[in-house]
Protein 1
Amino acid sequence: MKRYYLILLIPIIILFALQVYAQQVPPVELLEVRDYRFEEFGIYKYPPAWFSHELHVEEYQVACSSCHHIYKDSKNIWTPENDIQKCSDCHGKSKQELTIAYHMKCWGCHKRAKEIHPIADVPTMECNRCHIDKANLAKEEKSIQQKLRHKERKVEEVIKNLKVKGFYK
Ligand code: HEC
Ligand code: HEC
Ligand code: HEC
Ligand code: HEC
């Protein structure tokens, strides 16, 4: 009878251990880049893009002002106190202009990072790694969570020293 209880206990111990492991990194929240202007221009051709502020800002120390900007006398004077404006407030004259602004910003850094460090996992031509189907979101969150456990020092170094026109003040 005693052994029977012991066998029952094993899965409980395993479940408990798994839970402790999972708790080391809290769940990540992906941010949907949803710019209302795209809806005004017509339907989205691709699923909206999703990305993780945590992966970019905390893990790889990408400065807020690398993505957010307000230029004054060709200086980026954006601070977190500024209300976050939509990119389309300034780059929204046409769907093409707006798409290029987003792609230049996101893709631009990824492309440069890959040129310097080819094994950096920065999507460029794999459209569906940014334009993520709803059905694949949970998988993407898990994958980011894994990444937050193992920072690639070399990638961090590359990003720190990256100079792309317009990215930094
Ligand atoms: C890799 C690019 C990138 C970096 C770095 C970045 N952001 Fe963002 N952030 C975005 C994008 C894109 C959006 C979504 C904009 C939209 O949908 O119009 C956004 C949205 C936001 C929002 C509003 C929406 C929300 O739900 O959170 C805030 C607030 C914000 N960012 C603050 C910050 C701060 C503070 C930092 C630095 C600690 C930062 N961001 C770094 C790209 C970035
Ligand atoms: C200044 C550089 C920089 C900018 C700007 C930038 N990224 Fe990234 N991105 C990175 C780095 C670094 C990684 C992680 C690389 C790695 O894990 O090897 C990354 C990874 C990603 C990934 C892969 C996540 C995964 O592991 O599945 C996605 C998706 C992504 N970025 C989307 C975006 C989007 C969308 C934008 C624009 C709003 C953006 N990025 C802007 C540097 C940047
Ligand atoms: C690094 C991330 C990233 C990659 C890789 C990427 N995009 Fe995008 N794309 C964006 C973001 C961000 C937007 C603007 C906001 C949104 O659609 O959610 C956008 C917008 C678009 C739009 C306009 C909106 C729509 O759906 O009609 C098109 C078209 C588009 N991308 C096509 C592509 C194609 C084709 C590829 C692959 C060759 C690609 N993108 C790869 C981030 C990316
Ligand atoms: C308050 C207005 C404003 C907002 C909001 C804004 N931008 Fe810009 N952006 C500008 C101005 C002004 C420039 C500089 C144009 C120049 O001097 O060539 C610029 C430049 C750029 C460039 C080109 C960089 C270069 O030097 O060639 C990209 C890419 C870009 N913005 C993307 C974005 C994205 C993505 C967002 C949203 C996360 C955004 N912008 C939000 C005003 C804005």
Protein 2
Amino acid sequence: MADTVADMLIERLIHWGVDTVFALPGDGINGLFEALRTRQDRIRLVQVRHEEAAAFAACGYAKFTRRLGVCMATSGPGGLHLLNGLYDAKFDGQHVLAITGHTFHDLIGTHYQQDVDLDKVFMDVAAYSERVMGPAHVCNVVDQAVKTSLARRAVSHITIPKDIQDWTQDGHRSTTNIPQHSGDLFAEAFPLPPPAQIRQAADIIDTGERVAILAGRGCLDARNEVLELAEKVGGVIIKPLLGKAVVPDDNPYTTGGIGLLGTAPSQETLEECDTLIIAGSSFPYIEFYPKPGQARTVQIDIDPVRIGLRHPVEVGLTGRCSDVLRALLPLIHQKTDRRFLKTAQERMRSWNDLMEERGTRPDMPLKPQVVAHELNHLLDDDAIICCDTGSVTTWAARHIHMRGTMQFSVSGTLASMANGLPYSIGAAIAFPGRQVICFAGDGGFSMLMGEMATLVKYELPVKVIVLKNNVLGMIKWEQMAFEGNPQFGVQLQPIDFTAYARACGAAGYTVDEPQKVEAVLREALAHPGPAIVEAVVDPNEPPLPGKITTEQAWQFAKSLVRGQRDRWDILKTVVENKIREVI
Ligand SMILES: Cc1ncc(C[n+]2csc(CCOP(=O)(O)OP(=O)(O)O)c2C)c(N)n1
Ligand SMILES: [Mg+2]
């Protein structure tokens, strides 16, 4: 039988090295599914329960493997469901290809069923979005979509009307569309700034006395170069969350994270530096950068558009962080003054003591930090941590420490809930044998919890740690500490996640006592299949910033006065936290 458009598309993807597609079927993509069915030995379908999870899984897969992530959804609602996961990929600069179906080519625009022009809908999220018009078109479009995604670290989208997927005849090839003219070669760009610019950057760094290095996700493959830079300049490495795995957390040159969920020493380092090197980061929270004028700044980024995005920059170096740093390092003089670094290290010692104290609290109700802290000790040196969005992110950011070849990700710039579980599907599919952890709140987890069945179906031994506080905790604290309002609309109807895990065919564990956390986690981690650990934690534990501002304290007090219903419990928890910090 002659190849169909769908066959040609899947063949071309295989040609490009794609071996996994995250998808959920529908009548708009039955042609494509048939092409997948007949090529199961070369390309794997991972069937999810919700298309949003397919897109998140593709994004997680791309983040952890650096390969193209591919997801597929049917026409209309299926494609629309992909959107949030695709925006996550767009925002965090991940190469993801989405393939969708459309209604019959000759009924488009007639209010026919599922007649959504997804190529138009996806125009904002995708750097490339095209509708395949026939057999002679498909190869050209696939090649451009793949190349655009890889080159721009972006989302691409291809939609194909359902009947066209089955077409085999090529009666309408235009004469100029010479068969096989489109090439499947991706020639990656390796830009390097001109030597004079690198020299200029080196001079700025040389004159600095207090150097801070903000090392983001663009440095994930530049650990040695970043460490060498820090060593040479006696600098302090600060890691925005997407760059958490750039250097291990116990490295003496780093003060860990930054932002509301970061450490106080990182914030103080940025407040006091006279020179800032932003490397591969678009860390969004502008208020945490040095005040404009305070520090001379050099920025390295693969995307020139990002230079000077958040902070005024004196010299911008466009290129990969590893390449640019390798060119820059020989020009930088070794500094002998270690005072700035030493101060940061001393602060880090007390910060770590504080975290140790917070993470080992014997109090009831169980503190969420205790769960993250205990988990940290039990993780493999190559574990992959997929963190969801909420106050859980704070606990993971502060208590889960990177070491060895561990990888860590969150929905960074989109900061979407529900990414954690699908990311872990992408990670576990890509790395069988590696420990994969999903660390989520009860709100984020319940959004896409149907994907537990996906873990079971594909025997993915992901361990899902759900911090159950029966509240959209992060928002509760925002309402109080940023707005000065009593909490509203944040309470969650409790779910028995352990019973749910078992209902899906996974193992379920529950823990609500600090003394039992280690044993329960140990047992769960040793379980050969997927499992949920439901940790019932204190809903009144605030994810306070490393350094609380007077404005936040004031708003917080105001919300309590205005009728916050757990005010006494909250006050008690906050006051206890503060007292512990002082003692
Ligand atoms: C898709 C989506 N909806 C809403 C939000 C706003 N939001 C951020 S964190 C959060 C609460 C998360 O609650 P939960 O998962 O229970 O974690 P917790 O904060 O309680 O630890 C909400 C609603 C978001 N970031 N993403
Ligand atoms: Mg919660």
Protein 3
Amino acid sequence: MRSLSNSHLYLKTIFSLRNSFMASSFTQTLKPDLPPQDLDDLLCSHPQKQRQDESSSLTGSNSNDSKLLLGSPTGYLSGESRIERAWAHWTKLGRPKLIVAPMVDNSELPFRLLCRKYGADAAYTPMLHSRIFTENEKYRNMEFTTCQEDRPLFVQFCANDPDVLLEAARRVEPYCDYVDLNLGCPQRIARRGNYGAFLMDNLPLVKAIVEKLASNLQVPVSCKIRIFPNLQDTINYARMLEDAGCSLLAVHGRTRDEKDGKKFRANWSAISAVKNAVRIPVLANGNIRHMEDVNNCLQETGVEGVLSAETLLENPALFAGFRTAEWIEGQEENTRDGNLDQADLLVDYLKLCEKYPVPWRMIRSHVHKLLGDWFKIHPHIREDFNAQSKLTFEFLYNMVERLRELQVKMPLYIKDSHVPAISSNA
Ligand SMILES: Cc1cc2nc3c(=O)[nH]c(=O)nc-3n(C[C@H](O)[C@H](O)[C@H](O)COP(=O)(O)O)c2cc1C
């Protein structure tokens, strides 16, 4: 049932995407987008931009679980049952630990599949705008694509109206494992639109949104939050979300004002305090740059899993144990060439884009992130790339060949003790 629904969605999506803005084997005309200058504008900068078969998503294989899971929306379950149900669902998904964070224009289907191939256990979609999603079919088809291998999948929305979000969520619930509410976007566009981290100023509205979703959807609701400057406020916030029906909480350990991830270290001890204060599964986000960070974070915070964003863009093989040169400094004697580099990953990604078309602006963004260091050594190749108003896969594969001919040697490394986890499925 699920696979039929998925392939139906995917085929429908492909059909309507072929005629506009999407990367396909055909040449597409697009203005070149330059490398992101201002992350503040990039993040969440997307304003213009069938009900689940109950048994397929919510019935656990364990017969003890099924009493909890059958039935459906969580609304009328007691608090205790909701917590048990949250854990049963998490367990049914295989308790994913290594998760691709939501990233506007960057955690789209081919990138998610690439990360899954290299060790990611689950992934979030980019944030989708709930109102536009309900109103605009083209937006839906362009911005949300998925396929059978793309699970577990968390579909993220921004919203400030419970009814609108419910309508948007109902459209995606057959194709995902959580509907996620973005409560973390700190950017100007979110302030203007009154969503993301700006809902931290209106907690009764947040509560109403989560309650509405949790009591009407078949699929569980998750939330991604930022921390408050005051720890007790953060704890109260997390408990409120849990009481409202949130089944999974991802905590980005930075405040709304700490926008620059490179400048501000994520506060793992605040994440640990949240983990101790609630009973639903919790995920940590912030400062996950290689597998040592993953292990330290899991140990320090006690959370179920971690999300990574910025580092994954440069190194989608992070969760398989690979690291860029930046993260082996001082440990060179314990590391070796992993026989994989960012150009290999780009080629993998491009092949996935040929199979699952996405807007060219997303491909451009990934090229800059993956080959940023290579372009520093050979800026003329970057200039040539930026000068292309029409991108083609042929040009992109050719560009990789040119870099190879220039003998750029920039491998990803692995620690001697680490066995890379690469899946052949994705
Ligand atoms: C390009 C980009 C786009 C992002 N878009 C979203 C988004 O759509 N939704 C969201 O909740 N967070 C978004 N974020 C924030 C990340 O999910 C994550 O919370 C943040 O980058 C901290 O994780 P990191 O330290 O691993 O980068 C985005 C981050 C980046 C770099």
